[in-house]
# Entry
Amino acid sequence: MRALILILVSVSLFAQQDWPQFRGNPQLTGVSESVPPSALKVLWTYDAGEAIDSSAAIAGGVVYVGAGSGELLALDLETGQLKWKYSTGDMIGESSPAVRGGIVYVGDLIGVLHAVNAADGKGLWTYETGMEIRSSPVVIDGKVLIGSYDEALHAVDAKSGKRIWKHQTQGPVHATPGVSGGITFVAGCDEMFRAIRVADGEEVFAVDSGAYTGSSPALVDGKAYYGTFNNEVIAVDIEKREIVWVYEHPKRKFPYYSSAAVQGGRVVIGGRDKMVHCLNAGTGEAYWTYMTRRRVESSPVIAGDRVYAGSGDGRFYVLGLESGEKIWEFDAGAAITASPAITAGKIVIGATDGMVYCFGG
# Structure
């Protein structure tokens, strides 16, 4: 019995160590259970050769990240050594890999979803949408969910690549769909926040956001949090099916492209106003803001009592979750629009000059 308990504990810890998709989980909370050490340094770098807007996924000790060259890269988490490359044949933009069941999924800018064997980088299948893919795949209940600029959310069989359903909207689906309780939620460029059944693709309800949206919804405690191009951060009560608060900075009116991280009653999101904002999850009131030197399109991650985020100013920032004070920064020398992936005490993030960085103790 003791041996069985130890096995179960080790399996649980391993699962907690993975960061298998954009924002870390299907609820898109942007929270890591693995806390990096207080003092950080660069452990390794990898030069992908082309811009990296894609955020890394980490599973089983391997980092998966897409590059502007169209290559999906698999790197060893400990050393940064290349394990394999897979060529999509077109550029990979913001679409970030998702890893599930030994398969890596990623979309490209020609509109193709790729399924790749995680062990050796061999292509398994492709699925064509009608236009470019900037949304990141989410794998749930044997389905891969992904948005496309063909104005639809697609559900594809994770093993075969065959379409299961396609839900048509009225504008490009840029954001990544969040999933909770058998429902997928997506905010789109048609200004609508939609709830769609994962099982059959039927729409449950829609809420008018009042502006088009590139930000993906973070789903926590029955609410969805996301930013809009109307310079607002919105909280939607999923049960009530209505907006319960709206945040707008009193002076700086800029869109929110970044996706929120939510933990402990705090919502942390980056803005094109060059700031990282920390809000009260219950009321939308600001706890603090931190000013960087350029747009913050990187989506912050919360780990422990700290916030980790990149900025267009080429710096990677570590901020105190409670105070918003800067604890540490690293100058990458090129804009960081990708979002950090945190696991096993390590942080992985790419920059627009093609460099992939791994930080740790």
Notes: The chain has one domain: 18-360. The longest helix spans residues 2-17.
